[in-house]
Automatic annotation (TrEMBL):
Keywords: Membrane, Transmembrane, Transmembrane helix. It comes from the Bacteria. It comes from Chryseobacterium herbae. It holds the Pfam family LytTR. The keyword Membrane applies. InterPro entries: LytR-like, LytTR_DNA-bd_dom. The chain crosses the membrane at residues 16-34, 46-71, 78-102, 122-143. This is LytTR family transcriptional regulator. Signal peptide: none annotated. Residues 166-271 form the HTH LytTR-type domain.
Length: 277
């Protein structure tokens, strides 16, 4: 469950960007502190502005890792995965000196040339860059595979939720089982619902909204806020020329299809029966 939740955090780009931004900002601060300690050990001068500028290397991971994760979700090929890692590493080390040159050009008296910064990036950050992109690729691939392995197929979930029979009460409080396929339609009768069965009408303690999630969408369709109908018992339907429809069931019952449900109704009916002009 924890893996599933973590994966869905990564699926949200805003959460993903925020997570990387915070993590890499901390790494950037740590890098500046290490620079300070190194100057103290070497008895040299520490310039916070320059340390801050060159530590911006870590901030570039945020957008590039987001792009990497997006591409990982789209591919299952290991060769393409290795190409994604290699491209991310090359892009990072190439963009970094451009980024430093641009910032120093705007905010600093001295502009740091591209070649000098590129050499510095290769020397100081190559191994770290390879480790970050490689490990993140492995971690996210494992998370994705774990979720896909444990996630039930949509068809399986639907089957688990679908009912084929119902227990109803007779007048003498006798409980009987009726088959869902023999039900013509359900109608609202707050706080209950009416079950219009081929034999008689039953009262049931439930709501149409709750019942709708338990019925097979291949067999039943919502036609009105007060009605759910069995598609297999519909023998005709006719437009009212205002977006609504009248349907006739096999027991000669006529019901109205509200315009709010008309599109879904026609789609399901036409998918079940061959239609012609």
């Amino acid at each position: 469950m924890a893996i599933h939740q973590l994966y869905h955090v990564f699926k949200d780009w805003r959460k993903l960007f925020f997570f990387f931004g915070c993590s890499l900002t901390v790494l950037m601060m740590v890098n500046i502190y290490l620079d300070y300690l190194l100057t103290q050990l070497q008895s040299s001068s520490f310039y916070f502005s320059e340390s801050l500028l060159f530590s911006s290397f870590w901030l570039l991971f945020t957008p590039l890792l987001c792009v990497q994760f997006y591409l990982i979700k789209k591919t299952k090929n290991l060769t393409l995965g290795l190409l994604i890692i290699s491209s991310a590493i090359v892009a990072h080390l190439t963009i970094y000196p451009i980024f430093i040159w641009f910032l120093s050009k705007i905010f600093y008296d001295h502009t740091f040339p591209y070649g000098q910064t590129f050499s510095f990036g290769i020397t100081a950050y190559l191994i770290k860059t390879v480790l970050v992109y490689s490990s993140s690729f492995i971690i996210f691939t494992i998370l994705k595979n774990k979720v896909q392995t444990h996630q039930p197929a949509p068809e399986e979930t639907t089957k688990q939720n679908t009912i084929t029979s119902m227990v109803v009460s007779e007048v003498n409080h006798k409980k009987i089982v009726i088959e869902v396929c023999d039900i013509f339609y359900f109608s609202a009768n707050s706080p209950y619902i009416n079950i219009h069965h081929r034999s008689k009408k039953y009262l049931h303690s439930d709501t149409l909204k709750s019942l709708e999630t338990q019925l097979s969408s291949d067999q039943f369709v919502r036609i009105h806020k007060s009605h759910i109908v069995n598609i297999h018992h519909i023998i005709s339907y006719q437009s009212r020329q205002n977006g609504d429809y009248d349907i006739t069931l096999s027991d000669d019952t006529i019901l109205r299809v509200s315009r709010n449900y008309a599109k879904d109704f026609k789609s399901k009916l036409e998918s079940l029966h061959l239609t012609s002009k």
